[in-house]
Amino acid sequence: MASPNYIFMIIPFIGYGFGWFLDRKETERMTLFRDKSALYGPCTPDPSRPPSWP
C-alpha cells in the first residue's frame, strides 16, 4: 500500500494535467471566433478601410 507521502507528491502532477487539459479546451473554443473578430484580423491594415476603433 502506498504511503500518504506519495499522495502529496502526485497531487501537483494531477493539477498540471488538469490545467493543461483546460487550456487546450479553451484554445479549441477560441478558434471558433478567429475569423469573426477584429483581434484576429490581418496584421497590416488596409488604408482604404477605416479603422474599426474610434
TrEMBL record:
<keyword id="KW-0472">Membrane</keyword>
<dbReference type="Pfam" id="PF08040">
    <property type="entry name" value="NADH_oxidored"/>
</dbReference>
<dbReference type="GO" id="GO:0005739">
    <property type="term" value="C:mitochondrion"/>
</dbReference>
<protein>
    <recommendedName>
        <fullName>NADH dehydrogenase [ubiquinone] 1 beta subcomplex subunit 1</fullName>
    </recommendedName>
</protein>
<dbReference type="InterPro" id="IPR012575">
    <property type="entry name" value="NDUB1"/>
</dbReference>
<feature type="transmembrane region" description="Helical">
    <location>
        <begin position="6"/>
        <end position="22"/>
    </location>
</feature>
<keyword id="KW-0812">Transmembrane</keyword>
<keyword id="KW-1133">Transmembrane helix</keyword>
